[in-house]
Amino acid sequence: MASPVSVYNSNALDTHISSSSRESLKMELLADVSLLPGEERIIDKETIYICPFSGAVKGKVLITNYRLYFKSLDPDVALTLDVPLGAIGRVEKMGGASSRGENSYGLDITCKDMRNLRFALKQEGHSRRDIFELIFKYAFPLSHGLPLFAYVTQEKYGENGWDIYKPIEEFRRQGLPNNKWRITFINKNYELCDTYPTVLAVPFKSKEEDLRRVAAFRSRGRIPVLSWIHRENQAVIVRCSQPLVGMSGKRNKDDERYLDVIREANDTPKLTIFDARPSVNAVANKATGGGYEGDEYQNAELVFLDIQNIHVMRESLKKLKDIVYPNVEDSHWLSSLESTHWLEHVKLVLSGAIQVADKVSSGQSVVVHCSDGWDRTAQLTSLAMLMLDSHYRTLRGIQVLIEKEWISFGHKFASRIGHGDKNHADQDRSPIFVQFIDCVWQMTKQFPTAFEFNERLLLTILDNLYSCCFGTFLYNCESARDQHEVRLKTVSLWSLVNSKTEMSEMYLNPFYTPESGRVLYPVASMRHLELWVTYYIRWNPRIRQQQQSPVEQRYKELLALRDEYLKKLEELQLSDSSPSSRLANTPNSSSSTSSTPPQQYTQLQTPL
């Protein structure tokens, strides 16, 4: 795609442009927009973008079946917007036919990615009706019987991202199966649990009938199954949903015995059950048939982690958006940030994951659950695994972690994000996955050399959480993805990330130093946590200019310089060892047999 100013040139734009030239410019304004395969232009229209940073900007907006694209007409204001329609959460009409005041009639668009857009249109002849209806139709295709864009685009990549995660291979990497844990295919048709994957790791001693009886006592049939095993001490992270205890305090001997079998697998004296919820919420869940493990679970201890539910997290992020967009109020910044409680929630999630990782590292097995085991549970297991296992800190490892703990284990992406759905007030919407990625970012800040991937990867993941350009985050669980043939009919986000060497390098951390056995314990203290400015406030142009760290930029320049010198060195080495150069340096053929071999060069290392 051309740069925002590339369609203009200094000769063509002076204050005396003729009206015909102006019309020509308007025609050409959106001609340079590079469309994706399968993307089609729907409508373009002259409008005024009410920019919160530059004021009213005249320009043209293009609506396709994938994006909203705006470009300014004024050569002095080189402004473009390129917004995937999937990132739009709400479209509203602003003002009416009788509205007075400049730019009071148009559209208000609320986005899911921490920004809002406002466009003013002419009041005559219902000029906004067509564009409103078209944005509404293509931003919320599922509400209009249309396919998501991921099913329309035909983008081709060099690598099939769907191959990044293979459950059996990942279990083998962890050393499974072994004499304590086995792989089961009891859920191959999603009959045991329709929100679980088909391949599960369970205790070796458990029989298939045991699993079915345990499923009957766990919410949504989400039985305790292995997520990760420690290679040395054999302690495990097991995930599940809450037990169906109810107000009457029901018991299930099969469930109690099953948890004890998990404990016995590595002779843990006491199994720790981490319930992500505040204890008061867990007690309240009894009224709806849920609950928690009581004293009847022998050789087990229950720990509540006080992490709030999806509704609290949704409201917290809304408050955060209110204080960062469009403008940041400097005078009361710290108190305003504190009032959102966002960093406090991040702290509690990280703190819970640290406790899980610490138990496992010390040789004690743990069970993790919340209510249904697909929100806070996924946050805790995946973050603990990131702390314990350096494989997940690599570029491909983080992809496996997300595929495994979030996608295959049924985090409800469709419900939490609302892909293609017009019901913006749906109470199931919640930024649980965004919060997880925020926690990952916090860890990369505290351990800058421990992660192979960089911030750009995290931003790309979150942008495509909403974009609907890839099938990766579509639908609520594996069974729904199978039903909608996601792997057959859409492209994985990891195809983009892993497709080209130069593309992959965009996501690499130049400071990365592999350390295979190191456990990371981030400091989950408000003094050490930061607001992720380059995500939450990135639409502010002042912030955007500061995104690249000067140290990182200089380091990349040094790496490029090193690569250039190494290339020249290789060329010299090749020319020195070529037949013509050897003949030129050899006085006679008889002495050539005793000549020394070409000099070997060792690779240079550029010091930091």
Automatic annotation (TrEMBL):
Q: Which residues form the Tyrosine specific protein phosphatases domain?
A: 340-401
Q: Where is the composition biased (Polar residues)?
A: 574-585
Where found in the cell?
A: Cell membrane; Cell projection, Filopodium; Cell projection, Ruffle; Cytoplasm, Myofibril, Sarcomere
The positions annotated for binding substrate are N309, I310, C370, S371, D372, G373, W374, D375, R376
Q: Does the keyword Amino-acid biosynthesis apply?
A: no
Its placement in the membrane is given as:
Peripheral membrane protein
Catalysed reaction equations from the record: 1,2-dioctanoyl-sn-glycero-3-phospho-(1-D-myo-inositol-3-phosphate) + H2O = 1,2-dioctanoyl-sn-glycero-3-phospho-(1D-myo-inositol) + phosphate; 1,2-dioctanoyl-sn-glycero-3-phospho-(1D-myo-inositol-3,5-bisphosphate) + H2O = 1,2-dioctanoyl-sn-glycero-3-phospho-(1D-myo-inositol-5-phosphate) + phosphate; a 1,2-diacyl-sn-glycero-3-phospho-(1D-myo-inositol-3-phosphate) + H2O = a 1,2-diacyl-sn-glycero-3-phospho-(1D-myo-inositol) + phosphate; 1,2-dihexadecanoyl-sn-glycero-3-phospho-(1D-myo-inositol-3,5-bisphosphate) + H2O = 1,2-dihexadecanoyl-sn-glycero-3-phospho-(1D-myo-inositol-5-phosphate) + phosphate
**A GO-annotated cellular component:** ruffle
Catalytic residues, per the record, are: C370 (phosphocysteine intermediate)
Stated name of the protein: Myotubularin
Source organism of the structure? Gymnodraco acuticeps
